[in-house]
Amino acid sequence: MYQLQSIFKEEASSVDSLMALFLEGGYLSNFLQSTSSSYRDIALSQSLTVLTTQLQLSRNHRVSFALFSGEGEELFYFERSSDPFATISDEQTEMSIQMIKNRVTMDWQLNYDTLPSTVIRGRLLDRVALLPFRGHDVQDSIQLSFSVRMDRFSDYLGSLKEAYEASIEWSGNPQLYINELGYSIELSPNQFLTIKPNVSVLVEPLSQLSIKLTAIALFLAIFTFGLLVSLISRFITAPIGELDRELTEVMNFQRDNISLSSNRSEIGQLSKKFHILFEQLQRNLKKTHEMAITDTLTGLPNRFRFYEYSRHVLAKAERDKSLVSLIYIDLDNFKFVNDKLGHEAGDDLLCFLAQDLQRLIQPILEQRGGCMVSRLSGDEFAIVLTHAVAEEADELAKSVVSLFVGGYKSDQHYFPVSASMGIASYPEDGDTLKELIANADMAMYNAKRSGKNHYKHYSVDIAAAARRTKTIENSLKMIECDKEFSLVYMPYTSADDRIRGFEVLIRWNSPELGVIQPDEFIPIAEQTGSYSKIDHWVFETAFKSLPKVREIFGEECILSINISAAELGHHVVLEHLVELKKQYQIDDKSIELELTETFSYVQTGAVFDVLNGLQNAGFSIAIDDFGAGYTPLLHMIDYPVNKVKLDKVLTERVTDSEYAKLLPPLIQLCHLQDIAVTAEGIENPFQLQCLKEAGCDFFQGYWLSKPMTLDELENWYRIYHTREL
């Protein structure tokens, strides 16, 4: 009966857990705020499915959820069961109607008339505040209920009833049985279950139990007598001589410690104290050494142990003429994990990764040894591999890359991270540990810039690229923007072929390095903190050029300027742009700010505050390279966005005959959110015509023009205007 009561409470608690998780997760508010549609119902159904999965309910459990309006109208019903035509039960409907009618804010009901039993939990909430309903007009309320079928409870109750040929009684009070067998358990404050077994069923088991207990008592009596005789001999006479002998050996350094005595006598206790004393001294010495060489979070060898081990294997490799490879591992987007999921999730990621890396090298350790993985600091790991064939380092690196395909998963989280790795090998890439570390680090950064989640071997080309990157980094710190930077303008048109605006692009002609493409120097500027100065120069120069552009192309012409996602988390950029707009008397909607789609990785409250502030200040917001980044399509509704710019690759794909049918719905989805659509990368009139027919708003690409300087715009426009006429 206690087991039955435990099963009941465990299954019944799942209803409360479902209700709590559902209300805390914001699913109800999202449902009520969304427009009625099949998508809204599907989204809520998927959320409920996830909740039941999180509670680890068996798939055999029938779980249902019902939502009623204050007038008693069924708004939504969800059921997880094997019946595809399942409908809401009469008990669940009746409970919901009664709660609305009587304004009961919370109710709980157990239906036991038929097996299997079901538990229903209901809430009556304010439709707006989603708090217990205290109002007078039930139209302002919403009623929801969860029902879970008590399969395990019902099955176990049935098995008890069958095994004991018992009768079952449900009552509001516990039953007392003095002269007959029976037992009551409390399932809820007003619900008790009583089982009365058939006495004839218990006669034989009780007789067998009595015989067993008598036999056990006899055995224990004999055993106790023999044990007492043995203890007197073992723990009084023999231990004194043994302790004296072992202490003499320890004092003469013939052994590390005396044996641990199991004797509970005074001699045994004294022996234990000596053993504990010697053991504590050795343990403290060992623990001190382990702490010095072990990472406290992951349990891997730390940087100190890494240096110690690496020097040892390099010295051995020099004697044996073998290869040693250093695989330097750095996690990509680890800061995003800490910022978005919290430092506990970041620690969880590091611990699971440490286990996976240790698992990958375990076969190598078992076969021949000569391999160690360590955590150097933060999200940086290193693997030292002694091997005979060069390809073995590649195989191990590929195994690490495979851990991050599609992201990285632990028991509790999915992490949108990857790993960039650099490999440097002795003796080809360096003779000393210092050289190997520097070259592996250089190769790792090359892998990170080349696309992430893969590895690179150190090479002369990588070293040259690293020197070039360092030169660019140093040049950006000392650059005079007006002398080396320039702006070019790439026009775009509307459906009537009129010039509607220009995308402003930066160009750099370095006296030392020549022409450097934005794709090369902008990421370096963002990583080193130099981009703020470049951003300010671009905006001020572009703002100055707006009057001349409008003099040529009309007062409705606007400028689209790229803004770094790294700048969006600071209100300084908002204040600076507002000040420039006021200084150069720029009209509202004359400047459009373009964000790359990777902006989704820096979505924080501060970022959205800046974006909303920019919109309120009269700037338009556009998402650039849409379709090539990380933003789910429907997340556009979360962005304060006026326009999206389809990426060149997406433009090319959706204008192909095989995918052309996807283009109109894509554009229509944006229009439904009052978001204009610009297609980038248009190369030919055929693509242009497809995009016009699909309802695209603006068009940009080399079909129209390549980027031009401000002086080239006027001559180009004369030719374009003549062609247009």
TrEMBL record:
The keyword Membrane applies. Gene3D superfamilies: 3.30.70.270, 6.10.340.10, EAL domain. The chain crosses the membrane at residues 215-236. It comes from Marinomonas foliarum. Keywords: Membrane, Transmembrane, Transmembrane helix. This is EAL domain-containing protein. PROSITE patterns: EAL (PS50883), GGDEF (PS50887). It comes from the Bacteria. InterPro entries: Biofilm_reg_signaling (IPR052155), EAL_dom (IPR001633), EAL_sf (IPR035919), GGDEF_dom (IPR000160), Nucleotide_cyclase (IPR029787), Rev_trsase/Diguanyl_cyclase (IPR043128). Residues 322-460 form the GGDEF domain. Coiled coil: none annotated. SMART domains: EAL, GGDEF. Residues 469-721 form the EAL domain.
